[in-house]
Amino acid sequence: MSAYSDLSAHFDRVAALSNAIGILQWDSDAMMPKGAADTRAESMAFLRVTHHSMITDARIGDWIAAAEADNTLDSWERANVREIARHFDVETALPADLVEASSKAVSKCEMAWRRAREESDFAGLLPYLSEVLRLQREMGRAKGEKLGLSTYDALLNDYEPGGRSERIDALFDDLAGFLPGFTAEVLEAQARRPAVAAPEGPFPVEAQRALGVEMMKVVGFDFERGRLDVSTHPFCGGADHDVRITTRYDEADFTKALMGVLHETGHALYEQGRPKDYIAQPVGQARSMSVHESQSLLMEMQACRSREFIAFAAPRMRHAFGGAGAAWEADALERLYTKVERGFIRVDADEVTYPAHVILRYRLEKALIADAMSLADLPGAWAEGMKELLGVVPPSDRLGCLQDIHWPSGGWGYFPTYTLGAMTAAQLFDAATRANGDVLPGIARGDFRPLLSWLRANVHSKGSLLETDELLTEATGRPLDAEVFKAHLKRRYGTGATLQ
Amino acid sequence: MSAYSDLSAHFDRVAALSNAIGILQWDSDAMMPKGAADTRAESMAFLRVTHHSMITDARIGDWIAAAEADNTLDSWERANVREIARHFDVETALPADLVEASSKAVSKCEMAWRRAREESDFAGLLPYLSEVLRLQREMGRAKGEKLGLSTYDALLNDYEPGGRSERIDALFDDLAGFLPGFTAEVLEAQARRPAVAAPEGPFPVEAQRALGVEMMKVVGFDFERGRLDVSTHPFCGGADHDVRITTRYDEADFTKALMGVLHETGHALYEQGRPKDYIAQPVGQARSMSVHESQSLLMEMQACRSREFIAFAAPRMRHAFGGAGAAWEADALERLYTKVERGFIRVDADEVTYPAHVILRYRLEKALIADAMSLADLPGAWAEGMKELLGVVPPSDRLGCLQDIHWPSGGWGYFPTYTLGAMTAAQLFDAATRANGDVLPGIARGDFRPLLSWLRANVHSKGSLLETDELLTEATGRPLDAEVFKAHLKRRYGTGATLQ
Predict the structure, then answer these.
(1) Do residue A33 and residue A144 come from a single domain?
(2) Does residue B411 sit within a domain?
(3) What CATH number is attached to the domain comprising B303?
(4) What is the ipTM of this complex?
(5) Last residue of a domain, which of A71, A90, A121?
(6) On chain B, which terminus has fewer CB atoms closer than 10 Å, C or N?
(7) If you average pLDDT over residues B390-413, what whole number do you get?
(8) Number of residue pairs across A and B with CB atoms under 8 Å?
(9) What is the pLDDT of residue B497?
């Protein structure tokens, strides 16, 4: 056995365990009866501790060293060793007691957050969140020292390997300069148009589900290797060859669940398209959070809110719910699906105003991690940032800095990946349509094969073979910038062809 | 930390893992998309190997020795040590290579069996089944040497701790002497009665499911700690505080799924009633397979095929399916639910003929394990036994010795627990009705609390505190015999009050 084959066999076992954890996590969110929560928590803790001890196994360091010196390895194998080393460096940078302290602080803070959000009580959350922040800083510092990164970049690196805040600053400043004026312009133009009626419900859950399944099949989801279920918070999870997405249904409004399903299907297609030969190995995993989000947003925003797709889908929506009348015409549905509004809540935001929510959070978390701002000042800074970026100020912390679970649950450094994903989606979709002239006509007739085969070849099947920048450059001819995303927004929402 | 607390903490971790395995097994059977089978097999193998290494951990032997000498332990703790020692002795009796060889032989044999059953090709199965049998013998011998048991009793002991074939021989001989004549008598009496019409379908799956859920609630299933789903082969599984049963629906006949659900609910009530303080420990587990089967059969056969329950359920069945007419009257439904027939297939058998199927299998497997009969002679011996015990001879091996998966899958020593369970069910139900005069009137009005509280107190909450004989003696005043079961059959099927 070579060191590489030892390494690879070890990570096959890690994958066997990760896949079990993935299905149990899905079960916890989609199937588990309430009374089993404590029992399940014990199982998950046991499996996660086992997982952690496997990926920090002392033998891994020696195997990596020997594999790095092995010049018989091909490019996939070399990239696999690189990815294994990347994770191993991070995981072994943290002392076990710090990991445990953080895990406990997060559990307490999440509980405190649920109550604090309910009661809009930021002061009540403050001590818990301070502790989480303190430990995040400490973990970021420990990882940063090992990796030669700033504290924030070390945290970001967990979600976006190779991501750097200097680069994100430039991209987000570019967008932040463009969006407030553009948003005002779009809102004015939309206000000038006569109001459009929305289809009236109720829309039975069974019919919504059937329509969702139909559309998942249209875009290419493989039900032999996945499922659609219901959960409070929609997600894409599961295991290798077993990709499970969830949604939630509102019988008064079918449009959210349908786009939610298409969004998660975008994530799922990435998972279902990962390289078969390396599906269990680190090099076979999705490249990064921004690339993952690019796949969901490409499907939802670029492909399925397009005029072409809505024209295809409108009669199917009518048929699913027995609808009739002007509200069910493609034009009316398209306007419904591309309505822009200044809101307080990130998850309800449209694609024009969404980046403002993200840029705000990114700037704040960076300042907080760097200790350049006190956590007690967060509500004030939030209001100020919302005013500047979106032109609205939330009337309460519940609708402001208490809305997201990310910070209480220790997800610092995650937020920027949403908007990096939106920009990546625009750039990839643009490249796909230029590479294959049948992508948009295909979508118009419900044939996603031209789009999907481009994504399979250029993104999905690459796994983590390339670094994010390389991946994007190979696929689109250049690294990420804000231009294509801005052009997309202008084309869809500007005063051009879309708005008659 | 005392040795006992080390032991108990260790088995809490084992339970965390077992519970994960339980949910994943449920998922494999009820949820998993086909394409995930290989991935799931990897996960299950990994978790099972981990589980095996934990329950054979070398430290356990020392902890047991120290805990056995600890006179501060209470009766539950002492029983827990006894149960842990029981499992440890068995698990460590087997050399790892024998376990692995058996596991591989079983996998191959199960595959061969699926094909062989389809094609009624016993000769094609013979080499695979011979290998499984050879390894079962070897494992039984290894365990038997350690435990001072015969080879067959050592195998039986895995399912029925403390069970002995000498005792089963006597019980089954008693039944075998009674049943052929009794069955003939019942069939004659039933033939003399005018035919009864069955309700006509279709019976939509959703309505069947709703009726099943309604009846599960009536008998006391806790949906906060369990679920009802669909699978090809109905079972009761899941985890502590998370008991999941399954059924399958036939739109042409609702009666099977309903009784199937009530049967699995009987198993589930046992699981949901295990002692909370010891739910994760060996002493908190169900006592044995015969006691488990007694709980499903008590619910299905004793309680829910009773005249009292059917009178309560009949209007609810009518309501569920919008039925009307003579076929939906309680009398007609009762006759449907207590129809006796001589059939070839065990799983389709009624409660009068079922024991014959089991006694046949028990006698044959005992002879095969003892090498007192050649496996090649199985089809002939099967036909002979069916003739003697049931008066019918299957026209093919598919309807004969190829029908069950137990032997191909290495479940030798399991079969007798079905009929031990039926006898135990009769004895327990009889004791419950004598202890509380409201048990049967309660069932007649859909109030199962009198029955359930007796079962909780006398069976469920005991876990494995007592040996099976002690449990039954404490609950019913005597160890198991065939008398109460025979009396039950005579009362329900004989020429007395039930058959007008």
Answers:
(1) no
(2) yes
(3) 1.10.1370.30
(4) 0.94
(5) A121
(6) C
(7) 96
(8) 107
(9) 40
Do residues A358 and A394 share a domain? Answer: yes
Contacts of A127 (CB under 8 A, 6+ apart): none
Residues in A whose CB is inside 8 Å of some CB of B read 12-13, 15-17, 19-20, 23-24, 27, 31-36, 38-40, 42-43, 45-47, 50, 222-227, 239-242, 280
Residue B213's pLDDT band, with cuts at 50, 70 and 90, is very high
Q: Which of B8, B43, B231 to mutate to test binding with chain A, by most A CBs within 10 Å of its CB?
A: B43
B contacts of A38 (beta carbons < 8 Å): 241
What is the Cα gyration radius of chain A?
23
Please give the full DSSP string across B118-144, using - where no structure is assigned: HHT-HHHHHHHHHHHHHHHHHHHHHHH
Interchain proximity B240–A39, CB inside 8 Å: yes
User: Which of the residues in chain A have pLDDT under 70?
Assistant: 495-500
Q: Which residues of B are part of the catalytic machinery? A: 264
Question: Does residue A152 sit in the same domain as residue A60?
Answer: no
The reply to whether A289 and A317 lie within a common domain is yes
pLDDT at position B207 over 50: yes
B496 has pLDDT over 60: no
Do the domain assignments include residue A205? Answer: no
Residue A242 has its nearest CB partner, among B39, B225, B241, at B39
| Same-domain pairing of A22 and A170 | no
Give domain status of residue A68, yes or no.
yes
What residues of A act catalytically?
264
Identify which of A20, A36, A223 has the shortest CB distance to residue B239: A36
Can you give the residue range of the structural domain that contains A7?
3-121
How many domains does the structure of chain B reveal? 1
**Residue A87 and residue A178 share a domain:** no
**Is residue A230 domain-resident?**
no
Q: Residue A227 forms beta bridges with which residues?
A: A244
Same domain, A376 and A494: yes
Same domain (yes/no): A35, A127: no
Integer CA distances (angstroms), B140 to A6, B86, B149, B152, B372, in order: 36, 15, 9, 6, 16
User: Does B289 score more than 90 pLDDT?
Assistant: yes
| Ramachandran area for residue B200 (φ above 0: left; ψ -120 to 50: alpha; else beta) | beta
Q: Which candidate from B16, B23, B35 shows the least CB-CB separation from A241?
A: B35
Out of A16, A39, A225, the one facing B242 most closely (by C-beta) is: A39
Contact check, Cβ <8 Å, A39/B19: yes
Q: What is the mean pLDDT of residues B337-361?
A: 97
Mean local confidence (pLDDT), B241-256? 97
> How distant, in Å, are the alpha carbons of A25, A134, A347, A490 from that of A114?
20, 20, 17, 38
Q: Which residues of A210-222 are buried (b: 16+ CB within 10 A; e: fewer)?
A: ebbeebbebbbbb
Express each pLDDT in B115-166 by its tens digit.
Answer: 999 999 999 999 999 999 999 999 999 999 999 999 999 999 999 999 999 9
- Cβ–Cβ below 8 Å for B47 and A13: no
Instruction: Select from A47, A55, A44 the least CA-distant residue to A17.
Output: A47
Query: Which has the closest alpha carbon to A407: A137, A178, A181?
Result: A137
Contact residues, chain A, for B241 at CB < 8 Å? 35-36, 38-39
